[in-house]
Amino acid sequence: MATLASLLSTASQRPVIDKTALEGNYEFDLKFSRTISDDAVSIFTAVQDQLGLKLETATASLDVLVVEHMERPTAN
Asked: What's the pLDDT tens digit per position in 6-30?
């Protein structure tokens, strides 16, 4: 499920945190559309309808790396 959460993060362009507590490997076929049209299925609808899982909006703490300063390396 952690892998699915990672893939959903990439596809939805939002952080997805696995809170299912499900373990093991699962095989599934998820079909959704990245385009907006009348017959398009969003990733949020697809996850719920096809996998029986629900993506919920929530507030959570995330680890973030902040780069405050960068310099080019000096020549040897």
From this structure: 999 998 888 999 999 988 888 989 8
For the stretch 53-68, what's the b/e string if a residue is b when 16 or more beta carbons lie within 10 angstroms of its beta carbon?
Answer: bebeeeeeeeeeeeee
pLDDT digits (tens, 9 = 90+) for 30-61: 888 877 776 778 888 899 999 999 998 888 88
Contact 60, 17 (CB under 8 A): yes
Report domain extents, the chain: 1-76
DSSP for 2-68, written as a single string: HHHHHHHHHHHTS-----S---S---------SS--TT---HHHHHHHHHS----------------
pTM: 0.67
